[in-house]
Amino acid sequence: MTSKNFDVVGIGNAIVDVLVQSDDSFLAQHGLNKGTMALVSAEQAEQLYAAMGPGVETSGGSAANTLAAVAQLGGRAGFIGRVRNDQLGAIFAHDLRATGAHFDTPAAESGAATARCMILVTPDAQRTMCTFLGASVALDPRDLDLSIVRQAQVLYLEGYLWDAEPAKRAFLAAAAEVRDHGGQVALSLSDPFCVDRHRQSFLELVEGHVDLLFANEREIMSLYATDSFERATEQVRGHCSLAALTRSDQGSLVLEGELTHLIPIYGLGPLVDTTGAGDSYAAGFLYGYTQGLSAERCGHIGALCAGQVVTQMGPRSQVSLKELVLEHLP
Asked: What is the arithmetic mean of pLDDT over 90-114?
C-alpha cells in the first residue's frame, strides 16, 4: 500500500458505554430481552441509568472500539464521530485519545446529548444493550475531516451509520474520498436487524464499494436472505477482496478469492463478557492487513484479540494487545 499517515480511520457512532453486571430479574423488571440491543429515548435512558448499579464508563460504539484496539496494537488510528459538549462527550473524547487514537471531531454545541449505551452483563456472559443514539446520529458530511480520510490506508465504516440519512451521506462521501486517494474501504455489517432494514443498499455497497467485509454468521445470512451459512459464504465470495466471517465458538472464516482460511478460536480464559468481541476481531485483522501480513495471519490476530476481550468486562483489552500478539503469534 502507498504511504499514509493513518493505517485505519473509522467513522461511526460516538457512544459512551456504561457496563454493569446485572441479573435476569433486573432485565425482567425493566422489560428487557436478554442478548438484544434496543434503542431507547432520552427519557428512558435517564431512567435506566438511574436504576442501574455502579458501572464502568468508557468510550464506545462499534467503530470506536475497533480503532482503540488498532491503536493498542501499535497501529496509527483515527476516528470521526459526533458528540455533544457535555460531560459524557468529554469522557468519550478523553478516553478514546488515551488509547492513542486520533479524535478531533468538534463537539456539537446544541442538539441531543452525547449517545450512551447501557450494557447489562448477566452471569452467563450475555450482554443486553439499551442505546440512546443522541448526538451520534446527527453526524453529517460537514463533520468529516477529509484531510484525515485522504491519509487512511483503510477507511472502516460501521453499518449502524446507515440508519440516519445525514450519516449515510457522510459515509458515502468519505468512501469516495478514500478511494480517490488510493485507500480502501472496509465495512462491518454491525447487526442482523440493521442488515434486514437496509439489505438492498448493503448488497450494492458490498458489490461496488467495499474491499474488506466483516460480518458474523447471522449478519451474512441476513445479507443474502438465507438460512444457510454455506450458501451465504458462496454468495459473498468474489464481491469484495476479503471477507472475514466470525462464528462465535466455531472460529472464523476468511474468504480470499477462491481460498478459504479456517481460523480457530483462542481460548485464553473463562468467558466473562462478549461485548466488543467482533470489534476486537476487526481491529486485529485490520492492523495485520495494514502491516502487509497475509489474510490468514490477519485472521489469527483478529481471533486472538477477540479471545482476550471476552475474558474480561468491557470492550477494551485490559492487557497489552501488542504484547499478546508477540507472545502467542511470534
From this structure: 94
